[in-house]
Amino acid sequence: MNVPELYARIGPSGVALAVVAVVAAYLCAKYLVYLGWTGWAFRRHVAALARDPARLDAAAGARAGNPLIRIFSEAVRPAYRGANDLRAELAFLFHKHFRKVNRAMTLLRLASVISPLLGLLGTVLGITKVFRAIGAQTAVNPAVLANGIWEALTTTIIGLAITVPVLCFTYFFRMQIIGFQVELTEYAGRFAAPPPER
């Protein structure tokens, strides 16, 4: 099947679906690796600190490549705060250092919502094309009608095939991020330096 023939089958909405699928697959693969590495490196960092708390260097950690280690290092510095202030600071730092990840999760959610709509648009456009062709004929061939509807429904199938895995990845990533927030709150509370005496 060559490109013009494929385009005739899926139409412009099918092309848009292919673009959405490529972007979604890239984001899913990238953040699967990124979030996995981020959690692994952070847990190693905390385990090393648990073995030797003297290794805690907030200034060096604040420059680390891992966003969780940066958040943790910034949160454990001595400051005038209580437990509620620590939680608020962690929420702010998490938002600040995970802005790129949150943007990617929003794009994945958008891809999961827009894919079935593009599929439906392709179906409607395909069925319109079939009825236009049937209206131009005096004797309707049922095989032409069935073939045209089959082609029109292809985009709906593609849209749903994109939506289901992307939605699963989106919720998996959200659960990972919530787990990171819980871990950060616990570890930062455990390692936070006490506020200086006034």
Explain what this protein looks like in three dimensions.
With 198 residues, the chain is mainly alpha-helical. The chain has a domain at 3-112 and 164-191. Helix content is 83%, strand content 0%. It is built from 6 helices and no strands. It has helices at residues 3-51, 58-61, 67-75, 83-97, 99-135, 142-191. Helix 1 packs parallel to helix 6 (142-191). The longest helix is centred in the last third of the chain and has 50 residues, at 142-191. It is rod-shaped.
Helix and strand arrangement:
Elements: H1 3-51, H2 58-61, H3 67-75, H4 83-97, H5 99-135, H6 142-191
Helix pairs in contact: 1-5, 1-6, 3-4, 3-6, 4-6, 5-6
Output mean pLDDT. Answer: 84
How many DSSP H or I helices? 6
Low-confidence stretches: none
Helix percent band: over 70%
Task: Sum this structure up briefly.
The chain has 198 residues and is mainly α. It has helices spanning 3-51, 58-61, 67-75, 83-97, 99-135, 142-191.
Features:
198 residues, mainly alpha, 6 helices, 83% helix, 0% strand, rod-shaped
